[in-house]
TrEMBL record, chain A:
Gene3D superfamilies: MetI-like. Keywords: Cell membrane, Membrane, Transmembrane, Transmembrane helix, Transport. The chain crosses the membrane at residues 12-35, 75-96, 108-128, 157-181, 202-227, 260-282. Belongs to the binding-protein-dependent transport system permease family. This is ABC transporter permease. Residues 71-281 form the ABC transmembrane type-1 domain. It is found in: Cell membrane.
UniProtKB/TrEMBL annotation, chain B:
This is ABC transporter ATP-binding protein. It comes from Gordoniibacillus kamchatkensis. Keywords: ATP-binding, Cell membrane, Membrane, Nucleotide-binding, Translocase, Transport. Residues 4-234 form the ABC transporter domain. Gene3D superfamilies: 2.40.50.100, P-loop containing nucleotide triphosphate hydrolases.
Length: 292, 350, 278
């Protein structure tokens, strides 16, 4: 009976131990290990022959053109995806906001690509974008527009990848915005109607400010998500043509076996970027709480 | 069956002391009601008996045995919560059985107990229903059955009637009194409603700010409140209180002990005033009378006056109370009592 | 305050047509995938395109499946996905209960660590995790696709939230009924949180069934690879222009998810909205 309080004091820690163990082992420790690796010239065959080289990997990163090209591609991709997804999902959400059976079906349809593997999405779109037999070029021709090389030209590959990503994620963000829109109490709109406000003014002065916390939030998770883009690029273009679609994670992936130290250092840089974005996210979150 | 004893009990939450050095004995087999305003510590006291929030220091005894280190489930107590705390995913039968199963009661015994208890509370037709399909009153009965079936030596109830509508509440009050008579177990009942306390209790423990103000049967607490707080907490409307203007002493009388008349009577305490409000409640009428210095509530069995009418308010000397500057009631055989009585006479002529 | 009469019939019809077009943009590619998977090679090259194949070519599926050890891939996908869900639930339930219902020193900091872990993506940690698992000598097994996901930060967060909403009195009542903490979790908390657990399990199912990056960087041999990888390499093994075969393989990958979505679309939608809103 006497050791009961002891057990009660220890019990919470025992219960969270597996969860915390998993997090420490597979997230926290690897991050530390990653930082350590970034200071080494790592030998995969014989780890004991690895050499500490200080900041050399980082010096190399910031003096290599291909890194900056990958960074630029990632930024381009991110800006493209974020801007397009944001505008389109906001439009569609406002459009489909009213509760009706058909709107629900359309929402479910738009959302479907989000739960399908990126592998399938990429393959279907490669087939659609196939330059000589693909459906997209057929449709363009049918309505008298010039066709495109889509993924196979370095000038259109990036925008093609962006289109596919936007297509896949619009449904998800539409859902979140619709949820936000529907949480606005209808009495506010009734009050605005009594005040004789125009539709545009209601949207601009009432709806938008009220859902701005969610929009900020979406903006940030979209940005972080876009910065880690890999799967689409790997399957659809393999970083090409001419490295036109090589993004940061793809860049790291390519170095992962031959230059582990260098790949790790690039990973650290990616982590720093994501941390910065996360920091911004938390700052915004704080203002969101304040806002409400 | 068991008595409950608090010995020098202190309870604090995060360094905030809620109950300090409290001593109390709750008698075996009695229906004891802990009553007081919200935050007075009555629920804290009950939860210490249950062992849900054990005391910070001191000891709690059940049946003379120190249970400070005994887990809630092994103290032989049962508790009925305000929101009933019924397990929503279990049927009525499973709800009632849960404690028995945990105590490894054999199946036949369990079935027999569940059947007999559910018959007692009138739930025999609902045993296989889910709680969500039951009415508020029926859920209340599930909670009671679940407590009764364990044959606890102490029965704890935390505002069990406050979620019921007014009519059902009155009915359940009677049922709880009968249940207590039948079981003969120690009942501890927490409420903020003094009507519940007065109507059900063998003993009322009146609390305020973590301290016991008075511990007595309902009659005593009503007729001989030990202090100003008890006088004003018990009774609807509460006791009228006014400044005597001497030593910081206050006088007081109950609303039903004042007599209203159109002409001055020969009462010991008598003031003139105007009727400000009138509440007609059926069998009685409550007037608010404003005099030069005070405002009094008066409860009459007859409805003889109207608002704005000038009246005389009189109180007989044996219905008067005095409270010292410390709030304590001044006994009738206290040396100062007659002096204050005289001073009161002086006030009358205003 | 919106009146039906505000919209004239013309506008309503136009709106309906426009919505149907938008719906088509998102649904048609999947129908096209199915159609292609049943076409002959000649039909895929035809101009104008073949919308509906003359005779469904079921043989395409057989051919796609013979291009690699697809039975193994499918078994791996199922094993990995179900193991991840089971492991996550076992790890998450006690943790969520402790975070929701117990007071203990360091709770806030530890919970912040869970949320922090949520922010660090596998794309950052995969190199060190691979080296670590290689050290353990388990790279050629399914374990690298399972155990790194044992702690689902999203699941712990959501379940804790759900547990916190369960009234404390119900737990206290159970304690007075002499139930052990284990019994409280098993007989009260779990039955009461079934909706949340279903949501979490479905979210895990979708994420891990679809995962491509992690198996790609964690596996060195075909024997431990999942369907996603098998389908992705179809393009290389089948040649670049055999789209009917590639689409057939693709259908095999998509159908299980679509089935689950059809059965539990509400839960899945909720899961994703939660995972976003937190």
């Amino acid at each position: 009976m006497n050791n009961k309080p002891v057990w009660e004091a220890v019990r919470p820690y025992v219960m969270i131990l597996p969860a915390m163990g998993g997090i420490i082992l597979f997230v926290i420790y690897p991050v530390i290990y990653l930082v350590k690796l970034s200071f080494y010239k790592y030998n995969l065959m014989n780890a004991s022959k690895s050499k500490f080289i200080g900041l050399d990997n980082f010096k190399q990163i910031f003096s290599r053109e291909d890194f900056f090209s990958a960074l630029l591609n990632t930024v381009l991709y991110t800006v493209g995806v974020v801007v397009l997804t944001m505008i389109l999902s906001l439009l569609i959400a406002v459009w489909l906001n009213r509760k009706s059976r058909f709107n629900a079906i359309v929402q479910a349809g738009i959302f479907t690509p989000h739960i399908i593997s990126i592998v399938s999405i990429a393959l279907v779109w490669m087939w659609l974008m196939e330059p000589s037999h693909g459906l997209l070029n057929f449709l363009l021709k049918a309505i008298g527009l010039p066709t495109s090389q889509w993924l196979q030209s370095s000038s259109t590959a990036m925008i093609s990848v962006i289109i596919v990503s936007v297509w896949q994620s619009i449904g998800y963000y539409t859902l979140i915005i619709v949820a936000a829109l529907q949480s606005i109490p209808p009495t506010i709109y009734e009050a605005a109607a009594l005040d004789n406000a125009s539709k545009f003014k209601v949207f601009y002065k009432i709806t938008l400010p009220l859902i701005s916390p969610q929009l900020f939030f979406i903006l940030i998770i979209m940005t972080i998500g876009s910065f880690k883009v890999f799967d689409t690029v790997k399957i659809m273009t393999g970083g090409g043509p001419n490295n036109a679609t090589t993004t940061l994670v793809y860049y790291i992936y390519e170095f992962r076996t031959n230059s582990i130290g260098y790949a790790s250092a690039t990973g650290v840089v990616l982590m720093a970027i994501i941390a910065l974005l996360t920091f911004v996210y938390f700052r915004l979150l704080a203002s969101k709480v304040h806002y409400q | 069956m068991a008595s409950i004893e608090f010995v020098h009990v202190t309870k604090s939450f995060d360094k905030h002391v809620v109950i300090k050095d409290l001593n109390l004995k709750i008698e075996d087999g009695k229906f004891t009601v802990l009553v007081g305003p919200s935050g007075c510590g009555k629920t804290t006291l009950m939860r210490m008996i249950a062992g849900l929030d054990p005391q910070t220091s001191g000891s709690v005894l059940i049946g003379g045995k120190d249970v400070s280190r005994v887990a809630p489930g092994q103290r032989g107590v049962a508790m009925v919560f305000q929101n009933y705390a019924i397990y929503p995913t279990m049927s009525v039968r499973e709800n009632i059985e849960f404690g028995l199963k945990n105590n490894k009661v054999p199946k036949e015994e369990r079935t027999r107990l569940v059947e007999s208890i559910s018959a007692t509370v009138g739930l025999q037709d609902y045993l296989d229903r889910k709680p969500a399909t039951l009415s508020g009153g029926q859920r209340q009965r599930v909670a009671l059955a679940r407590a009764m079936v364990k044959k606890p030596s102490v029965f704890l109830m935390d505002e069990p009637l406050s979620n019921l509508d007014a009519k059902l509440r009155v009915q359940m009050r009677v049922e709880l009194i009968e249940m207590h008579k039948k079981l003969g177990t120690t009942f501890v009942y927490v409420t903020h409603d003094q009507v519940e306390a007065m109507s059900m209790a063998d003993t009322i423990v009146l609390m305020n700010q973590g301290q016991i103000q008075q511990e007595a049967p309902p009659e005593t607490i009503y007729h001989l409140p030990s202090n100003l707080f008890a006088a004003q907490f018990i009774g609807v409307p509460p006791m009228n209180v006014g400044d005597l203007g001497e030593d910081g002493v206050k006088f007081g009388f109950r609303p039903e002990n004042a007599v209203l008349s159109a002409e001055p009577g020969d009462n010991h305490f008598s003031v003139r005033g105007i009727i400000v409000t009138r509440e007609m409640l059926g069998s009685e009428t409550i007037y608010q009378v404003r005099s030069a210095r005070h405002s009094f509530m008066v409860k009459c069995t007859e409805d003889l006056f109207t608002v704005d009418q000038e009246v005389c308010l009189g109180v007989k000397p044996d219905k008067m109370f005095f409270f010292g500057a410390d709030g304590k009631r001044i006994e009738r055989d206290d040396a100062r009592f007659d002096g204050y009585m005289k001073a009161l006479r002086g006030l009358s002529h205003e | 305050m919106r009146y039906i009469s505000e919209l004239r019939p013309v506008e309503r019809t136009l709106g309906f047509v426009l919505k149907a077009v938008v719906l088509a943009v998102f649904v048609f590619p999947f129908l096209w995938m199915v159609s292609t998977s049943l076409q002959t090679f000649q039909e895929t090259l035809a101009f104008p395109p073949t919308w509906i194949p003359a005779a469904p070519q079921w043989i395409n599926f057989a051919e796609a499946m013979s291009a690699g050890p697809f039975l193994t891939y499918a078994r791996n996908s199922v094993t990995v996905t179900l193991s991840v869900i089971a492991l996550q639930l076992i790890v998450m339930i006690p943790a969520a209960y402790a975070f929701a219902k117990y007071k203990f020193a360091g709770k806030k900091a530890l919970f912040a660590m869970v949320l922090l872990a949520f922010m660090i993506p596998g794309q950052v940690t995969f190199i060190p995790v691979y080296l670590m698992l290689a050290d353990w000598g388990i790279i050629d097994t399914l374990l690298p696709q399972i155990i790194p996901f044992m702690s689902s930060a999203f699941g712990i967060f959501l379940l804790r939230q759900y547990f916190m909403q369960i009234p404390q009195e119900i737990i206290e009542s159970a304690r007075l009924d002499n139930a052990s903490e284990f019994a409280i979790i098993r007989k009260i908390m779990i039955p009461m949180s079934m909706p949340a657990l279903a949501t979490i399990a479905l979210f895990s199912f979708v994420s891990h069934w679809n995962d491509y990056f992690w198996p790609l960087v964690m596996t060195d041999s075909a024997g431990v690879r999942p369907l996603t990888m098998g389908i992705a390499v179809l393009r290389e093994t089948e040649g670049i222009s055999n789209w009917h075969i590639i689409m057939a393989g693709n259908v095999v990958l998509v159908v299980p998810i679509l089935l689950v979505y059809a059965i539990a679309s509400k839960h899945i939608v909720k899961a994703f909205v939660y995972s976003g809103i937190k």
